[in-house]
Amino acid sequence: MAQRLKTRRQRYGHLWFVAPGLAFFLAVMIFPLVFAFGISTTNWSGLGNDLQFIGLANYAEILSYGPYYRAAFHNALIFLAIFLFQHTVGLYIAVLLNEKPRFMEFYRTVLFLPVILSLVATGFVWTLMLSPNIGLINPALQNMGLGFLASQWLSHPTSALGAVIVVTAWNSLGWAIIIYLAGLQGIPDELKQAAAMDGANTRQIFWRVTFPQLSPSFTALSVLTFIGTFRTFDVVYVLTGPLGAPNFGTDVLGTLIYRTAFGASSFSSAEIRFAFGVAMALFTMLIMAIACWGLLKVLRAREIET
Amino acid sequence: MANVSLKGLSKTYSGADVPSLSALELDIADGEFLVLVGPSGCGKSTALKVIGGLEEPSEGSIWIGKTDVTDYESRDRDIAMVFQSYALYPHMTVFDNIAFPLQISKVDRAEIDKRVREVADTLHLGTFLNQKPGNLSGGQRQRVAMGRAIIRQPSVFLMDEPLSNLDAKLRVRMRSEIAQIQRRLKVTTIYVTHDQVEAMTMGDRVAIMKGGLLQQVASPDDIYARPANTFVASFIGSPPMNLFRGHIDGNIVRFGSQSLPITKESLTAYPGIKDRNGEVILGLRPEDIEDARVSDDAPEASIEAEIVLLESLGADHMVHLALDAEQVHDGDRPAGDTDDLDVVRTDGVCICRFSSRSPARVGERVTARVSTDRLHFFDPETGLALR
Amino acid sequence: MTDTAVSPSPSRAASLRRPRPVRRAIGKTLRTAVLVIATAWVLIPLFFMVIASFKSVPEFFMNPFGLPAEWSFSNYTRAWEDAHLSLTLPNTIIVTSVSVAVSTFLSALVAYGLSRKEKKFAAGFYTLFVSGLLVPVHAIILPLFILLKAVGLFGTLFALIVPYIAMGLPLGVLVLTPLAASLPRDLIHAARMDGATEWQVFRRVVFPLLKPGLVSVSILNGVWMWNEFFIPLIIAFRPEVQTMPVGIVSFIGSYSTEWGLVFASVVVSTIPVVIAYLLMTRQFQSGLTSGAMKG
Asked: In chain C, which residues have their Cβ closer than 8 Å to the Cβ of A139?
């Protein structure tokens, strides 16, 4: 019998180490999540006591809710642009830095700097740069004789979304560089030397030897970019406000959910639909979880092949 | 100081269908140095982990002195262990590594300091006390691990292949150092190794294991001279004992076209062969066969065969003789297994250790003298010695 | 070598030579140019932000991008008082350091508890913690708000600290559990043999050996906690309990044309992280990368 007792203690003894963390986690993450799901099955506005259970009606509504698709489309555009940017410019700069040029430490330190800046700071800096009257961009374009390109950057839907992308790219380039650089530094030189011996030229060495070896970096960066761009909120909030101005041209899921659940200054409180906002947040979480899982599955399979 | 008794100790890991350890019965006397030896996967390390309390036995009990410690946590068993990897705490200095067991049990500082310095002196570690293990050589790390075990003055030492990560020369030196330390401290020691040389040179007694089963426990000399079965016979000794399927015919044992007389000594050592006419397994140690040309005595018994391979080791030659007898190989067969022994090849090879004075050459036919007082006989069915 | 081995034909021999020095020099210049342009793209906005923070309002509008004629610290003194940095800077420091310390320590405990794969519960709890990375803050923020109010933490710094601790756990567990699992089993066994209790094994052996991971986790979580905007936007209403990013944004509403003031605030909110980053560039980069690669 004593033996039984000891067996049990050994098997579950380590639960004591998990308990404090688990308590915080359950209280702050899981309990509110369940609570939130409960709310999402009602029509609660977020204010007052007027609420009714409406089942999954909120979720059904999302499927035919135009603004949701519009916002998701903007997220997708941002993702695509950042994805391309990081796997081209980011990769290229990482390759350049991996050749250990002079001032390599300086370049690397500076290029990574935006990653640690708050998106609020990033947003303000770029609001100044893009500002039509006092901004740096327009005067610079005029000085270069490209004045016709000068624009009210944040006032046109297309250029405003472009601005969001540029700022996001500025903020996340460091990730691409550092992740690819870590991957590049992990490739044994012998591999490249062997390929060179086999008669491969620089370009062939890169595409046939180096790049396949970078697939874990590619996977990590892609997933990171996916999560980051579909969660984007701060940059848009600071650059174009919670309405995704102009005319919802930069409205993303983050701002749409925020506005629906908590309201924005120009919204009347009647338009706040907290329960619906929560439903959108949970629905988005589900879709993202599935997409992440799929993305990882596809990318990891590719890693094994190469 | 205490004796250790293992009573019917078994361990089957969850998910495994065969036990790693089956009904191990062992009594280790107070102060004894017992070596557990066997091929990898034989259960020796499992036995050590169970004794140390790092694994739970599925059945059986462990007694240290007069206490049943089966349900005790490792820390309450009053044992110390030296690990194959040394398991030195990389973030602590040598001093703290050695002092760790005492710090844990809240011994006062002055006492700790005194005892660490004593231990460091015995192990010649005095000048390394402030270094981290990462800066030490393999031999020094090994000593630190010993120091950490010694300092607690435990009743039992467990050592899990402590020398296997050292280079060959250092291993020989540490072998005698550990044996000396153990003899001085007189702490009951269970030492696990796969190296038969360590087993033979260090142990008061040697326990040979295979497939979770104990094969034989005896003094090194006994193990060598009187192996309990074909497994022990071929595991101990290098090169291993030659085993051939043979046939007893009156007072002669025939194998292939060779035959050797059965002497009084054989009958005394293996009474089981008395009046036994029929199949046996005959064992010949390479060192009991010598080139007849360099043997001073007149050949009392000999075999004649062609040399197919000759390896010179300087002091002696390993000579491979081609025999037409069925050779038996017992690498992986647990005792008591009644399947037929594997017949590796019918044109067997007999390995002999000729002295370097022998003019033997590959390709020639030689007459080799066999010391017939040291033949070994085993049951062809069970592999057990015919005692 | 076989006969099929390539032997360069005379016409190809020229192209097989290494590129000529001139071409190599051009290539090198181009590559340096790419690096310089990228670096400028990162630095110029930051540079102008710092410059702008030293300018008075009229000077900013007359000459937004030149060096200030007169370096004025009035923006900073005003930011300190009017933008409540005197309140929000200490708040940010307290919230971040307490949350990082507690969260990292709890992560290490959880990681050790879950590091033994043979434990049946380990894999399930690990997945549970790590999937916390996907939980949308937007969805849980209001229930959290209600909860914090119910237990009386609302209106104190704990209203931020408690959620931050919990939200730091998924990353902490993600990074530290594999690290704890990769510690040599023998070390833990040795400590148990040496008489250590499980707590002593953790405290004396496991925790110190997790140090590289602890640094990574602290940096990863510290950076987002310092910069977090959304959670305090909802939960912290008054400057007395706000952190800097929210403090600055809510202050902007009324002073939106005073760029110098805004940028002075942003500079103050950014300087501590930048200094930490410059002091520990390596740890920041490798710490953040290791977290990202695992995620």
From this structure: 65
